[in-house]
Structure formats: structure tokens, C-alpha cells
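Feature request disguised as a bug: please show the residue count (324) next to Pseudouridine synthase in the output. Example input:
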Amino acid sequence: MAEGEIYSFEVKEGEGGERIDKYITSQLGGRTRSQIQFLILNSSVYLNNNVEKNCGKKIKCGDRINLTIHSKPTTLKPYHINLDVVYEDEDLLVINKPAGLTVHPGANTQNDTLANALIAQFENLSSASGETRPGIVHRLDKNTSGLMLVAKNNETHLYLCGQIMERKVKRKYLALTYGVPNPVMGQIATNIAPCKKDPTKMRVVGGAVGKIAVTNYRVLKVFENRMFSLVECELETGRTHQIRVHMKYKNNPIVGDQKYAIYYNFNVGIVSSQVVEEIRLLGRQALHAHQLMFYHPKTQKPMIFEIPIDRKIKSLIDLLQVDR
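Example output, currently without the count:
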């Protein structure tokens, strides 16, 4: 296991039959159940020397539980770029992530990620998500721009993750979509799971497959003979590609989305060639995280941040005429 704060428990007689997340919460004290669930889901809990990622796993007498809160210094290489810092204090950061920047290293990216940029610019970052994700509390897709939370210490990190799991963090996005969602205001609640043929894509599934995903939306403006809409989406859950998949599910995929709108055909005959070219030049989904609300870990006061839509998406919107 990685270096860090390590806690060990042995389940005593009379303690068996309880959920592992509830048991650890009662043993540690000072941490919420949602914070413990975050650690379990991020492979920080071992049951009898094996990683346990099932928060509802029932324990039995004699079971041995080890919990690690990572503190090993990161081995990432610094990536020197100018990050747009919207807010900073001793506990956390709010940044405006540019489109095209991957959040943390993965299969196709190594040293040119937000994580690398953070260690180049900030000395103190949390390590609760592991050494390759310093400070990273939640993600944005590579080609989605906008507001992100970054934690400077593990206490803040777990507190913020607990808020996300309890749905106390409010995240609103602006999306330019094809067509007009019907109805113009509503909620999309489905299960989402990886595609069988392409695991880099997600899909809406039925039954007990996948994980529940809930998106609230409302149409703000309608453009160009009802061929485009500006839609505000608010997340209740934070699944991979959630808004992009849900907009496709409504048959209103996000403009420029090269995974979920590539086969969407709109009537280019009644749209100016300049608009068509602007969509081509955008080269990514027209999705921007424009508003973020959470409670500060020390003051418990609500913190609300809002930034204008990304300039490239705004340039495209400015070309469109409002349909009155």
C-alpha cells in the first residue's frame, strides 16, 4: 500500500453484519460516512489485505480492515503553464480550466495535465486521491472548459468530496445543443454505463445496469430557426460524460461533440456557411462549467463562483440569430 495515514481495525464479536462504510465511520470519528465512502471507492480501504470497493460490504467477526489516506509525495513532473486562478485561500483553489487540458495522467497523457500544472505552481496540494491526482477533487472532460475545485490538504479534500457525494455541491454548465429539448425545462434521470464496443464512451442503459445519473436542464435561448439552443444543465450526480450522454439521449447532442454528435445531421442549407465553419473550427464540445457552489470547509459558508462562457463558444453563439 502507498505511504500515508494508516488506520487498522479488527472486527470484534458483536460488530459483524454491519456495512463496512458505517463501521469505519463509527471507528474513526470526526469524518462523515460520505467521506469514508469516497476513500472506499478510491481504493484506499483494504479488507483482509484485499482492496474493498463495495461501500455496502457486510463485515464479520475477525475481519481485518486497513484504511490509508495517501500522503506520499507526488512523482509527477511539473508542467509550466499559466493557470487561471479564480479564487485561492489556505485550504482550496477554484480554477478556470481551459478546454484541451486533461485533468490527470492516463493512458494517452503523461506530463501535460492539470495535475502536472498544479504541482508546478502550488506547493501544498491534497493527496487523498493518490499521487497522480494531487488536489483533484472532481473532474472535467479534457475538452470541457470551466470551474474546478482543487484541495490543498486532505481534510479539505475529504470534506469537499463528502459534499459532492451528499449532493450539496451545485455545478451548472452551459451547453450549445442541436435542436430544442422538449420540454424546454426538465430532469433527465437514467442509468449510465460504458459502451461495450468502445469503453471510452458511455451510454444510457436500462434495468439495474450502470449507475444512476441525474441532470436538471432548462433552455435559455433558441437560435437559427430552432436549430440550436443554449441550455443550462445542473448536475445532481457526476458521472463520466453525463451531460453529453444525456443531451444525446434527448436527441439534442452538444454542438461539436466528437464522440456523441459526430453522426448528427442538421440542415446546413438554412444555416450560414460561417456558422458551419465556426463549428468545424471549434473542434470540441460546446460545454462550459460556468457556475460552482459549495460550502467552505472551515467557515461552512456558501461559496458561489460564476464565470462567462468560454470565448470560442461565445464566438459561435454571437454568429447565431435569436429565434423570436
